[in-house]
Every structure is written in structure tokens, then in C-alpha cells.
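lol forgot to send this yesterday, sorry. C-alpha cells for the thing we talked abt
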């Protein structure tokens, strides 16, 4: 798992599938004071998805979570990179993660295509039940049990799975559980260390993290 990736290190067309959870641009800070690098600006947004598009093989998929209050900025970045939006996912929660004008009971993600990938033989639903990950390792930690079906549906066996905003490594664990090679990139030293520990073979949970 790489902590930083310099421009040009990842060859064009070297990645089979991207599943990522970038900052939502919401200045999110939970009660424990943790932060998400890049959540306070969008200077990285268009360059990041341009890089993702460059790294992906032709006719392949990217699934990206995003912050719906700034959907226009994310969609603009997707389009500027060259992606087509071919699906939209809603992950329904049994609990409310926020309450203001309404109670927030869902997460959302776009299914993006580079070129014209072959659709899955058994398409998954675009509404998927959510399970709580606990957020112990990252303030926006995603559950492995939710990510694994996305990896299985939209990546090919043997294809490299990339998460350029790897956080605590849940995408990488989902990829490993399916026998896919994986690469994670994370700038924050603390989250990088947490992901690295989770991926160590000596970790007793390394092969069975359903929702951690």
C-alpha cells in the first residue's frame, strides 16, 4: 500500500477497477476531532479523477462515493476526466448519520465507465443495505461487507483494484477477500498505518473483517 504516489508512477491502463471514497468537501469533523485530508477544498478533485481515468484500462469501471451537497462539483470532475455516468448507487442505513433539514439515512456513489465495459453477467441492485462499520479507524470508514459486492461485480479476476483515497483500507480488504490484487494510496500517516496493520497476515481479523 502506497502512502504517496508521484505523478507518472502508475502506468496508463494498469488498473482494472477503482473503488474509492474521496473527501466530500463538507469540512466534516466528528466529535472526537479527527479530520479527513482534502475535505476543506476541491483543488484536488479534477486532477484526481483525471489521474484515475489515466490509470484505468479501456472499457473498465470506477465506483466513487461522493458528497451530495457538492454533486455538481463531483459530476463536473467526472465528466472533465472523460468518464460516463452509467449508474447511481444508494446505500440505505437503519440509523441516521446526520439530522438538520432531514435525517440522513443513506450514502451515495456513482458508477462511472471509461469506454464501454461489458456489463456484469448478474447486475447488482442500485439500492444496497448499509451496515455500520463503527468508524473506529477512520471517521468515514466504509464497511467491507458493502464494498465486496462492488468489487466482485465490476472487477475481473486478476485485475488490479485501486483505491486512491484508501483511508483505513476497507476497499483493499474487500479486494483481497475476493483474490484480487490491490493498491491503496493514502496521504494521512495515521490512516495509512491503520490500513497497513489491517492488511498484515498476522492480524487475526485480516481475513474475516465483515464490518470492521
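and heres what i got for the seq, position by position
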Amino acid at each position: 500500500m502506497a502512502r504517496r504516489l508521484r505523478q507518472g508512477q502508475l502506468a496508463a491502463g494498469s488498473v482494472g477497477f477503482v473503488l474509492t471514497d474521496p473527501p466530500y468537501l463538507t469540512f466534516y469533523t466528528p466529535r472526537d476531532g479527527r479530520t479527513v485530508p482534502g475535505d476543506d477544498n476541491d483543488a484536488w478533485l479534477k486532477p484526481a479523477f483525471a489521474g484515475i481515468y489515466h490509470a484505468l484500462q479501456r472499457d473498465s469501471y470506477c465506483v466513487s462515493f461522493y458528497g451530495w451537497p457538492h454533486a455538481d462539483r463531483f459530476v463536473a470532475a467526472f465528466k472533465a476526466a472523460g468518464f460516463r455516468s452509467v449508474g447511481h448507487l444508494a446505500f440505505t442505513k437503519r440509523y441516521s448519520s446526520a439530522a438538520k433539514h432531514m435525517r440522513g439515512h443513506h450514502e451515495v456513489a456513482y458508477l462511472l465507465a471509461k469506454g464501454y465495459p461489458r456489463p456484469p453477467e448478474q447486475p447488482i441492485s442500485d439500492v444496497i443495505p448499509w451496515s455500520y462499520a463503527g468508524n473506529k479507524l477512520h471517521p468515514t470508514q466504509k464497511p467491507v461487507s458493502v464494498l465486496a459486492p462492488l468489487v466482485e461485480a465490476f472487477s475481473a479476476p486478476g485485475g488490479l483494484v485501486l483505491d486512491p483515497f484508501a483511508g483505513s483500507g476497507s476497499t483493499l480488504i474487500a479486494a483481497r477477500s475476493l483474490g484480487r490484487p490491490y493498491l491503496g494510496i493514502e496521504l494521512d500517516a495515521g490512516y495509512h498505518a491503520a490500513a497497513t496493520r489491517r492488511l498484515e497476515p498476522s492480524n487475526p481479523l485480516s481475513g474475516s473483517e465483515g464490518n470492521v
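The chain has one domain: 15-199. anyway ping me if u want another try
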